[in-house]
Amino acid sequence: MRDLYNMIFKRKSIRKFDKKLSISDEELIKIQEEFGKVSSLIGDIKTEFKIVSNDETTSKRGEYSILFYSEDKDNYLLNAGYMMEQVDLFLTEMNIGACWYGMAKAKDIEKDGLEFVIMFSIGKCNEDDFRNDIKEFKRKDISVILKGDKYDDVIKNAGLAPSACNSQPWRILTSENSIEVFKKDKMKSFIPGTNLSFYNNIDMGIFLCFLELVLNSKGISFDRNIINGSKVSDGLVKICEYKIN
Ligand SMILES: Cc1cc2nc3c(=O)[nH]c(=O)nc-3n(C[C@H](O)[C@H](O)[C@H](O)COP(=O)(O)O)c2cc1C
Predict the structure, then answer these.
(1) Which of 99, 196, 197, 207 to mutate to test the pocket of ligand 1 (most atoms within 8 A of CB)?
(2) Considering the chain, what percentage of its residues have pLDDT values greater than 90?
(3) From ligand 1's centre to the CA of 159, what distance in Å?
(4) Please, what CATH class does the domain formed by 138-244 belong to?
(5) Which of 15, 92, 101, 200 to mutate for ligand 1's pocket (most ligand atoms within 8 Å of CB)?
(6) What's the pLDDT at 56?
(7) Which end of the chain is more exposed for a tag (fewer CB within 10 A), N or C?
(8) 49 C-alpha to center of ligand 1: Å?
(9) Same fold, 7-129 and 138-244
(10) Structure confidence at residue 232 as a pLDDT band (50, 70, 90)
């Protein structure tokens, strides 16, 4: 994955845009090129990004929408979160504001046999529209998300990841040689039942993207093992285990 570590401190959901600014043709080309460099979490899932004008979606925010299409296979939502978040971060690097937009829909719900999963609204911003102080983040206290006394600085930064309704469904267990990542089952939220698990699975992929950027930035090498199936124990579903080398 490309090094986008510094962008995790700068990014934020941008919902309002200065109408005087606009995304240039060169920037649109650069975005298209960057799509081709995004790393997947699960290699054998076919995916596609598409950048479209807002008339092709229900969004009225910003100038364009970025749509994500995928095959419907095991863990495809995790993969969607992981891949789309890299796009969120490289847009931040280009001073293009984005907001994950689960409530909006694409008019084309299928593309080349792939199904529409989720989208962003995007628009051009100024550097100072983004965050410049970690205090601007509203996130759960580390004691809520982490059990174990190892890697707390890693988990603190990975926990800056965005999530639907800021629900932050990730729960982490660490030891000297491992970081286990769980999803909290049945989060309290105003998102209705099935939708909640749809969004929370995407959230978990976003968290894995952040976690790996933080580990890479610290030169901590790891082997990732994505867990298939969804066995719930103590209200937690194990999603992934990182073996620290
Ligand atoms: C999967 C997903 C879906 C989201 N859907 C919406 C949405 O429909 N409308 C919206 O305004 N924000 C949406 N958001 C943005 C979150 O509300 C936002 O990420 C969270 O409150 C944290 O704030 P931050 O992104 O500024 O750090 C979504 C975020 C994620 C990850």
Answers:
(1) 99
(2) 90
(3) 14
(4) alpha beta
(5) 101
(6) 96
(7) C
(8) 19
(9) yes
(10) confident
Give dist(CA 244, CA 222) in Å, integer.
Answer: 4
Q: Which of 147, 149, 146 has the alpha carbon at shortest distance from 207?
A: 146
Residue nearest to atom 29 of ligand 1 (CA): 164
| Best CATH choice for the domain 7-129 from the list 3.40.47.10, 3.40.109.10, 2.130.10.10, 3.40.1190.20 | 3.40.109.10
What distance in Å separates the CA atoms of residue 144 and residue 54, rounded to the nearest whole number? 38
Q: What is d(CA 90, CA 32) in angstroms, rounded to the nearest whole number?
A: 12
Give the mean pLDDT of the chain.
95
Domain ranges, ordered by start, for the chain: 7-129, 138-244
Alpha carbons within 13 A on the beta-carbon side of 234: 3
